[in-house]
Design brief:
Layout: E1 3-4, E2 9-12, H1 21-26, E3 31-35, H2 38-44, E4 51-54, H3 61-66, E5 71-73, H4 81-86, E6 89-90, E7 94-97, H5 104-116, E8 122-125, E9 129-133, E10 137-140, E11 147-152, E12 156-163, E13 168-172, E14 179-193, E15 196-201, H6 205-215
Parallel strand pairs: 1-6, 2-3, 2-7, 3-4, 4-5, 7-8
Antiparallel strand pairs: 8-9, 9-15, 10-14, 11-14, 11-15, 12-13, 12-14
Amino acid sequence: MIVSSQAAVTLVGGGHCGPTDINSALRHAPNLVAADGGAGRVLAEGLRPKAVIGDMDSLSAEARAAFADLLQIVPEQDTTDFEKCLTRIDAPLILGVGFLGGRVDHELAVFNTMARHADRAIVLLGSDDCLCCLPPALTLDLPARTRLSLMPLGTARVWSSGLRWDLSGQDMAPDGFLSISNEVAGPVTLRSEGPVLLITPRAALAPVVAAVTAAVPAR
């Protein structure tokens, strides 16, 4: 394990990253790690990560020089830098920025990785949304009418209460039933079988982080 932490980790990728994303994430996840080209964004913010993990095929010369003593090179090409990081970080929560937006194939690869690591507490922050894989049971306290979408990443079933349109063991699949732009009507409880993305507005980051941290057992 390259990074082992009892506190949550902010993981910075090389994709789209807003000017406040890293600092917003660090408020919830104070330990900083960069995934390959994400080191350039960390350097631009004047920050120093605990490690830079990846195959380093998109690392700038400036970041390579600045963080030479922190590079953890994983040369194999069978996994993405996101997955290389997930399998080498042990923390109660990983909060990722720079993994949403940009190239569609990269984003779909991120979702594929999240589906295969659905037992981990992983939250991603984007320009408009924050998202995570649903744990088997989750309780959320969000303002009424907050947008809440459920996107299956495989065959799944979901039960809910507290939504405008509740689900009662609904069968879901990427090529089947989806729950897009549902709304919060009260305290939300969700139960799921199978990999399902929970997608909420970016403003819901704090309660989502708290709920996921509470719902996913420590490794």
